[in-house]
Design brief:
Blueprint (H helix, E strand, L loop, with lengths): L6 E9 L2 E10 L4 E6 L8 H11 L3 E11 L8 E2 L1 H17 L8 H6 L4 E2 L6 H69 L5 H14 L3 H18 L6 H20 L4 H21 L4
Parallel strand pairs: 3-4
Antiparallel strand pairs: 1-2, 2-4, 5-6
Helix pairs in contact: 1-4, 4-6, 4-8, 6-7, 7-8
Length: 288
């Protein structure tokens, strides 16, 4: 099953202790690059989140953002570190005496001083457990979105492969006609020059020219690549890199077809193949 690396998912949860919101955003990348942003009080779950992510995804740059908001109306407990507050007050008094115009101490400034107010030790276990459980849900949503987008990309690639196969079929049918046209052009040229040409020598030259413009191998290899794309798309594993390699092989054959072309129709066919290949290559960049 083909999966895209581009997707977004969001999930939230409300509890008496507050609310959690997970947002996951995934874009294409050569390997798995997980960026996890957590509130400071919930940093303890980072390893568990990262482990869960690497088990489900193999490629893509994935941004995981968790927001935690404590419930309104919860009782605020303020604990004062009296020893720390006393030290701050003493320091303020010493500085104040040294000033020409002693200033009054601001209570709020003292409270803001690090260590004066002790943070209450909240029970974070139910919050961390809920965050991990909610992450599993939002990650499942992301995987489903990646799969859905991957199926869309697969259909687009298959459609372009079908169009390319038709071009290859048409070119194979036209080969006898092209050879006949080449032969006739040579005969016409000889007639214009009004010269006598040895028949055997003429046939030898025609064979040489025919060999130079022979593209049967290129057309056969293109057919082989079509089959490989079909097999690859149905693999139950990440296939993006393999598809990218096949696109390079497609492009090589299309370039050779164009370089061997002796007529405008074949040149146009090679150009159309390269356009379709480039369209597929852009889509392949987003496949896991």
């Amino acid at each position: 099953m083909t999966h895209s690396m581009t997707a977004f998912s969001r999930s939230s949860e409300e509890q008496p202790w507050g609310s959690l919101v997970w947002e996951l955003r995934s874009v294409n990348h050569r390997y798995l690059d997980a960026q996890i942003k957590l509130p400071e009080e919930l940093r303890s779950i980072e390893n568990e989140i990262r482990s869960c992510l690497t088990k489900r995804l193999k490629r893509g740059k994935v941004e995981c953002n968790l927001r935690y908001k404590p419930a309104l109306g919860q009782q605020i407990e303020v604990r004062i570190n009296e020893n720390g507050a006393n030290e701050v007050l003493k320091a303020c008094q010493i500085i104040s005496k040294k000033l020409h115009q002693p200033s009054e101490m601001n209570v709020m400034e003292v409270l803001k001083w690090p260590g004066v107010v002790e943070a209450p030790q909240a029970d974070l276990k139910p919050i961390t457990e809920a965050a991990v459980k909610l992450f599993d849900i939002v990650l499942q949503d992301l995987c489903e979105a990646r799969q859905s987008e991957g199926q869309r990309l697969q259909l687009m690639i298959e459609k372009r492969c079908t169009a390319m196969q038709q071009i290859v079929t048409d070119e194979r049918k036209r080969r006898p006609q092209i050879l006949q046209q080449t032969r006739q052009k040579l005969l016409n040229r000889i007639e214009e020059l009004n010269v006598n040409v040895d028949k055997d020598r003429f046939e030898q030259e025609l064979v040489y020219i025919t060999q130079k413009m022979d593209v049967d191998e290129e057309l056969d290899r293109l057919d082989s690549h079509f089959k490989e794309v079909e097999k690859t798309l149905n693999r139950n594993e990440p296939v993006g890199r393999r598809l990218d390699f096949i696109m390079q092989e497609f492009n090589r054959e299309a370039n050779t077809l164009g370089s061997k072309s002796t007529d405008i129709e074949t040149t146009q066919a090679a150009i159309e193949l390269k356009v379709l290949i480039e369209q597929m290559r852009e889509q392949v960049q987003n496949i896991e």
